[in-house]
Amino acid sequence: MLRNLLTTGSDAARAGAAVLRSGMLGPERPDLLARSGIELARRGPIAGACVGAAIRFGDRPLFNDELGTLTARQIEQRSNALARALQADGVKPGDGAAILCRNHRGFLDATFAATKLGMRCVFMNTEFAGPQIEDVCQREQVKTLFFDAEYDDRAPSWAERHIRAWTDDGAAGSADATIDELIAANHGDPISPPAELPTMVLLTSGTTGTPKGAPRQQSGTLTTLGALLDRVPLRTGEVTYVAPPFFHALGFAHLALGFGFGSKVVSRRRFNPTEMLEAIAEHRATGLIVVPAMLQRTLELGHEAIAAHDLSSLRVIFCGGSQLPGAVATATMDEFGDILYVIYGSTEVAYASISTPSDHRAAPASVGKPALGARVRLLDDSGREVRKGEIGRIFVSNGIEFDGYTDGSGKEVIDGVMSTGDVGHFDAAGRLFIDGRDDDMIVSGGENVFPQEVEELIQARPDVAEVAVIGVDDADFGKRLAAYVVPAAETEPTADEIRDYVKRNLARYKVPREVHFLDELPRNATGKVVKRKLTDPL
Description:
Blueprint: H1 10-22, H2 30-43, H3 45-57, E1 61-65, E2 68-71, H4 72-88, E3 96-100, H5 105-116, E4 120-123, H6 130-139, E5 142-148, E6 161-166, E7 177-178, H7 179-184, E8 199-203, E9 213-216, H8 222-229, E10 239-242, H9 249-261, E11 264-266, H10 273-283, E12 287-290, H11 292-299, H12 303-307, E13 316-319, H13 326-336, E14 340-346, E15 350-355, H14 357-362, E16 369-370, E17 375-379, E18 392-397, E19 413-414, E20 417-426, E21 432-437, E22 442-444, E23 447-449, H15 451-459, E24 464-474, E25 478-487, H16 495-505, E26 514-517
Parallel strand pairs: 1-11, 3-4, 3-5, 4-8, 5-6, 6-7, 10-11, 10-12, 12-13, 13-14, 25-26
Antiparallel strand pairs: 1-2, 8-9, 14-15, 15-16, 17-18, 18-20, 19-20, 20-21, 22-23, 24-25
């Protein structure tokens, strides 16, 4: 059944081989595989994965949070009970459900219950302020809101249902009920598939404005999965620590992958590098999923603090979500071994390229070569292909690009490839490098500058923990560069040292005229630097 989901052609053959290596299509009872495949087709990729995991893996542990471990069957029964409660309260297929939860079992309960009912699930950023939550919920026509107790004061009062997903005292508070109360009041027997498949709405990062909704219904074929496994040696039946938020595409993808793999996903509500290392050691995790800022914070603990934990089980560090500085890539492999893999893509196009440890040893800042099944083109402003080594706008096609935002707008498409909003270049070996956002280019004194190049250089200094470079208005040059630097622990770099260093390594027009020192860079919940906040008064 699962084999039939593969597309045809050489890419599909490679994908199939990669999936077989992972163990996903290993020896299993044919009737269980058939039943899980049928549920996938009847319910869609999310609800189907939950039901299929219960069929295939039963009492195998699949999720661990602060409250302990849940088996595949327990997760299935909990979401069935919650779905029954919602159904009895009048929820219908297509109704909007917003999930404003951190990483815990309540996120799973809400997501699987809503998708089993064919609802439209909107994954909310846990760092949203009240007005953003209000705007997104109105735009997405949310009727049911699942939220953690910490968001009591931000939950729109006009929603038809308010359900607490996490509460320290067990009380519903201002909500109608808690998820646990609704689960306890209903039985967990299987429910019938909905009349229409559910929709999953991921939100853009919102680093440049109000987040947009990017809806998805299906997740493609096994060729899509094979594109990941062709480069990254993930295996079934293991343990993965997922640090990024589940509302983020990277975190959610690996949560879902755990259900297909029969692998235990370990996560915690808030990221803490020491607690993460402790959990990896305790659960003997083989995979670690992170965003770049999480790697940086972990490395800041220092070698002795990291080495105090037994991390010998770790085989894969998989990073994505934003640009990983080359210096951080090198430091990560020097500390943990050559186990670093980086994915480049976006909410709209999904994946474009995946790097391997050998890519990072040869070219630390690279995001690797185009992934299996992905077509990556670099185009100029006229839509023509640029020559190798030249910077161009990055366009991607892989068969699972989104169809447009929920507000009716979309991304630019040229000859079947979709814009990622980034600019980059290929090196002679075919590796892709990200030079910045296509709207980040700074024209200073008539010269074009992309901040990423300057950031990579400054980041390589041992006295710099992280850095962001932006353009600010200048009466003489139009724009001038300003660098915002977070010093490494127990160091005190000066502005002149930073400027002189850039001057010795790059063209004069790429030297920041201003250098500011901060305790930390402003970031959103997924670790991306929010550069517009750097223009605010310090």
